[in-house]
Amino acid sequence: MSIKDWPADDRPREKLLERGAASLTDAELLAIFLRVGVVGLSAVGLARELLQRFGSMAGVVAAPREDFCAVHGMGEAKYVQLQAAVELTRRALASAMTERPVLDTPDLVKDYLRLSLAHERVEVFVALWLDAQHKLIETQTLFRGTLTQTSVYPREVLRAALAKNAAAVILAHNHPSGGTVPSQADRSLTRTLKDALALIDVSVLDHCIVGRGESNSAVRSMAMMGEM
Q: pTM of the predicted model, to two decimals?
């Protein structure tokens, strides 16, 4: 049975219009994006297959181009559309952070960082430079590394902070392996950068670690361990 033959209350588009997007499952939301299924599978069925293959919605979004296009019914056009939708969302979140203090919307920051970093296959270290009102000035990728590590140079971080005339910063990097528990090296780096940036009156508000679809705070982890 195709989706058009389902009861109206069960059709994803009608359900969204009636109850709002938040009422839809991941498969239903993805089905609206896909629009049509393939022979033997409705759009919802195809969406479920994608979610099962890649593990989650985050996995679908971060899927490598060749893996995504290898799924029957997918292709470069769908891949391009999906990546464009993700980038539109990321830019909307970035725009929102320029309009209000980031500390007022911590979940927005987490969502933005997950969209920005979760798909990366190597470690990437970024800084969200903030003004005196803690509104976003710019997101800057400072260093790129390997699958397991990246080299971060405090002098370059300080130079970038001065160039952006920043008053505060949220640091972030990803763990391509998926884990978000800060390592000893992460905690040591956080302390070093916090102390160095304090010399030029730039506050480190957080150091976020992004994994596959989740994030963690090195700063909060250190505070809980009595290290800060």
A: 0.76
Tokens representing residue 145 in the block: 């590394």
What is the DSSP track for 206-227?
EEEEE-SS-EEEHHHHHHHTT-
Run of H or E residues at 102: none
Which letter, b or e, does each residue of 207-219 get, where b requires 16 or more Cβ atoms within 10 Å of its Cβ?
A: bbbbbbbebbbbb
| pLDDT tens digits, one per residue of 137-195 | 999 999 998 877 788 999 999 999 999 999 999 999 998 877 788 888 889 999 999 99
Contacts of residue 90, defined as CB under 8 A and 6 or more positions apart, other chains included, come to 112, 115, 116
φ, ψ dihedrals at 88, nearest 5°: -60, -45
Burial class (CB in 10 A: 0-12, 13-18, 19+), 131: middle
Mean pLDDT, residues 86-105 taken together: 89
Nearest Cα to 127, choosing from 100, 99, 163? 163
> Cα–Cα distances in Å, from 142 out to 158, 177, 178?
11, 20, 21
Per the CB < 8 A criterion, the answer to whether 114 and 215 are in contact is yes
Across 3-17, 93-107, 116-130, 188-202, the highest mean pLDDT is recorded for: 188-202
